[in-house]
Amino acid sequence: MGNEYDTKASTIPLEKSSPNVEASYRKAGLQTAANAVRLCREEGSCNRLLTEKEAWVMFGAGRSAGGLNKDEQSGTGPSTAVSGVAVAGLTAPALSPGAAGGAVAKTAVERAALRWGTAEVISGGAAVAEGGTAAAAGTSIAIAAPVALGAYVVVGIVALVSWSKFQAELQRQGYIILPEILGVCIGNCHQPGAPKFELRFSPDTFSPQPFPRKFSPEEMETLKDWINPKTSTQPVSPPLPKAQPKEKEEEDKKKDCRKVRRTTSRGDDPLAELFCSVVSLNAPSYDIYSKVGVAEIDALAGTTWYECKCGYRSTVRAFKRGERWAKFAIDKLDEQIRRQTKIAGYCGYQYRLFVANKEVEDFFRDRYADIDVVKIDFEPCE
User: Fold this and answer.
1) Which run of H or E residues covers position 354?
2) What pLDDT digit, counting tens, does each position of 293-344 carry?
3) Residues 218-260 pLDDT 10s
4) d(Cα 42, Cα 112) in Å, to the nearest integer?
């Protein structure tokens, strides 16, 4: 690698080391460029620092060496363009290509060695273009870098197609390209001033309030009134009577549901009558007449229709055995229950079926899944 700039023996360009340049970059928000300028000034780390102008000269030289700018090439071939970059970027004395003992350079690195006495490729691939024809057709170009004596950068031909690709390639190889300082300064001049925030209190007189803060006398009175509200001495008017719901009999008349209280016993089974008196707490029995049918209500308490079935275990067992008389009895029961539930739904009653045996309960639940079946233990039924 070529020698780096010596901060004591030589002068580093101001655009790479000046504190004013660093300040301008920081004001514009270019922190990477500002840090690079500071490191170059304080530590002499300048071998990876390029100005935008230097990078542009390298880009032009590379395009000429790669045959991308044929109108800019001279008759001496790519070596002339590469050497020209070295002269433009460095302050070393110019030497002729044959100054080193009449040797003839074949590659870019050899040409750099003839010019500076020693040269190395500081980054980039393994293939360096040889000669003018090879440079134009190859995959890489060696370009002199104006950061150290005899320093060259190897880039691919594809990186020389556009200026943006060339910049990206240099940044990929670790170079930092400083933006043109004149444009940065002009941009800083047109930036709006930094916002100023006025303190609403003096830091010397500010003292934090204790938590919880003390309440004022007015606030304490408000809290007392809220916790212990004062009783009003004003007379309060009596509440208006709520509208009483219409009696069930009037609703029945509107729906054409008329019920008549029975004076005789329920059905023809005194045991079933006793069972229904127990489960309904002696609710009365009715005959009900409606547009959808006529039925007997075993017991009616409020809007609950009690239908009581006592002693059906033998009938259920016979039905499961397939006996005809049991099938006839269950069919008759189906018709009765479906007719009663239809009337109960039309007249606004809740139909409930009460049994006294677990086996009968399971049978009715399976057969009448939409009916509320309730089991009440009553030993006389079984």
Assistant:
1) strand 350-355
2) 999 999 999 999 999 988 889 999 999 999 999 999 999 999 999 999 999 9
3) 888 888 888 887 776 666 677 777 766 666 665 655 568 899 9
4) 30
Question: How many residues are present in the chain?
Answer: 382
Whether the full predicted model's pTM is greater than 0.85, yes or no, is no
Give the CA count within 13 Å in the CB-facing half-sphere of 155: 32
The CA distance from 327 to 335, in Å, is 13
Q: Are 13 and 46 in contact (CB under 8 A)?
A: no
The residue to which tokens 């009460």 are assigned: 354
Helix (H) or strand (E) holding 258: strand 258-261
- Beta-carbon contacts of 171 under 8 Å, excluding residues fewer than 6 positions away, are 177
Query: Rounded to whole angstroms, how far apart are CA atoms 312 and 358?
Result: 11
| Distance, C-alpha 297 to centroid of its chain | 64
Q: What is the 3-state secondary structure (H, E, C) of 207-244?
A: CCCCCCCCCCHHHHHHHHHHHCCCCCCCCCCCCCCCCC
